[in-house]
Design a protein that fits this description.
- With 380 residues, the protein is an alpha/beta fold.
- Helix 3 links the parallel strand 4 and strand 5.
- The longest helix has 16 residues.
C-alpha cells in the first residue's frame, strides 16, 4: 500500500517525531510504500516553550522524510492537500496531539481525501492536558475530516465519542520505543553519568510540564521512610516552565542532596544511560492519556510507578510490573517504600520482560490495516 504520514518527524525532536520516524520504517520493513510529510514550520516561536524544536541527530535511516507543512499558512495547507491528492496514497495517516494543529491538518485532509485515499488519524489526545479557549472548535474541525481513528488509551476513545460516533475507532497501545540503543549495565551507566554506585535511583524523564506532577514526586521524597534511605531522584529533561518553583520546593524539604536536575533535552544517544542507571521509572502525572516514557522503560526493562490517570494503568499491571497509585505524595511514597523495603526489583523486572512483548510496532501496523479494511469494506 502507498501511505503518506503527515506528522512531526526528523529534524524535529520529541516523542511524536520519534514515533513517526519509527512507524515509517516499520511500514517500509513490511513492504509498504511509505513516506513522511513533516513540517517546515511546526510551532511559531512564541508558542514553543523550549529552547529549540530541532534534533541535531542525523536523519533516521530507511524512511523518506520531506518537509512540507506550514502550520500557520492556509495557502500551504491547500497546496499540501493538493499535492497529496495528486500522489493518491491509499492511506493519509495524521497525528493529532494539540488543537492548534486542527486547521492545518484538517484542511489538508479535506483536500487529500478521496474515493482512493482514506484518512486515518492517530490521536494522542482529544482533550488537551493544558486547555485553551477554542480547543473544541479546532478539534472538531480535524475530527470531521477523517475516515477512522486509532487511540492509544481508552480515555481518548471516550473523548473522541463526544465529537464523532460515525467512524470506526481502533485501540492499540503505544508501541515500545526501541530506537534508543540497547541497555547497558547499571555500573556502566552510572559511571558514564558520573554518579555514585551506592544509592538507588529514581528516574523522572522527559519534558517537564505542570501536569506531569514532578512537584508531587518531590513532596513524596520528603516522607521519612524515603528520606532515611540512600535514594536519589534523577530529573532528566528540559523544563517547559519555570524551574525555580521546583528548586524552591526542594529547598523547602531539604532535599538538595537527593535530587539531581538535568535541565536540557536528553539526546537520543544519551537515553540508554539514564534508563539503565535507574532502579525504577516514576511518572507521577496529574493527567495523562498515554505516555511514550512508559514504552522507553519497557524497552530498557525497568519497573515503573505511574499514577491512576488516563490510560497509564492500561499499560502497567499494578504490583506486577510496577505500581499504579493515586496522584498524591503519600500514595507515591507508600509504593516507593514498598519497592525498596521488600526488594521488588527482580520480580517486577521479570514481569516487564514478559509484558513488553505485546507492544510491537508490527501490531500497530496490523491494527491500522484492520481499520483500513473496516473503512473500505475490504476485510473478510
Amino acid at each position: 500500500m502507498k501511505i503518506i504520514i503527515a506528522a512531526p518527524a526528523w529534524p524535529y525532536r520529541g516523542g511524536i517525531a520519534e514515533f513517526s520516524n519509527r512507524i515509517g520504517r516499520e511500514f517500509k520493513d513490511e513492504g509498504h510504500d511509505a513516506e513522511i510529510f513533516t513540517f517546515t514550520l511546526q510551532y511559531p516561536g512564541f508558542l514553543f516553550p523550549g529552547k529549540t524544536q530541532y534534533n541535531d541527530a542525523p536523519p533516521p535511516q530507511g524512511v523518506k522524510i520531506t518537509r512540507v507543512i506550514n502550520s500557520v499558512n492556509p495557502l500551504n495547507w491547500l497546496a499540501t492537500g493538493r499535492k497529496i491528492r495528486k500522489l493518491a496514497p491509499d492511506i493519509l495517516l495524521l497525528r493529532f496531539w494539540l488543537p492548534f494543529m486542527g486547521p492545518a491538518l484538517g484542511t489538508i485532509a479535506r483536500i487529500a481525501r478521496s474515493k482512493k485515499t482514506k484518512v486515518i488519524c492517530i490521536f494522542d489526545n482529544v482533550v488537551p492536558h493544558e486547555k485553551r479557549p477554542g480547543d473544541a472548535i479546532l478539534t472538531k474541525y480535524l475530527v470531521k475530516s477523517i475516515d477512522g481513528a486509532i487511540v492509544m488509551a481508552g480515555s481518548v476513545g471516550r473523548d473522541l465519542q463526544v465529537f464523532r460516533k460515525d467512524i470506526p475507532v481502533e485501540y492499540n497501545p503505544h508501541p515500545i520505543y526501541d530506537n534508543y540503543g540497547i541497555p547497558v549495565s547499571r555500573n556502566e551507566a552510572l559511571s558514564s553519568l558520573n554518579l555514585s554506585h551506592e544509592p538507588d535511583y529514581l528516574l523522572f524523564f522527559g519534558f517537564v510540564r505542570a501536569y506531569k506532577g514532578l512537584d508531587i514526586l518531590i513532596e513524596a521524597l520528603s516522607d521519612e521512610r524515603l528520606r532515611g534511605r540512600n535514594i536519589k531522584l534523577l530529573v532528566a529533561g528540559e523544563f517547559y516552565e519555570d524551574i525555580a518553583r521546583y528548586r524552591e520546593l526542594v529547598r523547602k524539604h531539604n532535599l538538595e542532596e537527593k535530587i539531581i536536575f538535568y535541565d536540557r533535552f536528553i539526546k537520543d544517544d544519551e537515553v540508554a544511560a539514564y534508563f539503565s542507571a535507574a532502579d525504577i521509572v516514576v511518572q507521577p502525572y496529574k493527567s495523562a492519556t498515554q505516555s511514550g516514557v512508559t514504552q522507553i522503560a519497557y524497552h530498557f526493562e525497568k519497573p515503573m510507578l505511574v499514577t491512576d490517570v488516563g490510560g497509564l494503568k492500561e499499560i502497567v499491571p499494578d504490583k506486577k510490573c510496577g505500581y499504579v497509585v493515586n496522584p498524591d505524595p503519600k500514595s507515591i511514597a507508600d509504593a516507593l517504600a514498598d519497592y525498596f523495603t521488600n526488594n521488588r526489583k527482580d520480580g517486577f523486572t521479570q514481569c516487564v520482560r514478559e509484558e513488553k512483548k505485546r507492544f510491537g510496532w508490527d501490531r500497530m501496523v496490523g491494527t491500522m490495516m484492520e481499520l483500513y479494511e473496516r473503512i473500505t469494506g475490504t476485510g473478510t
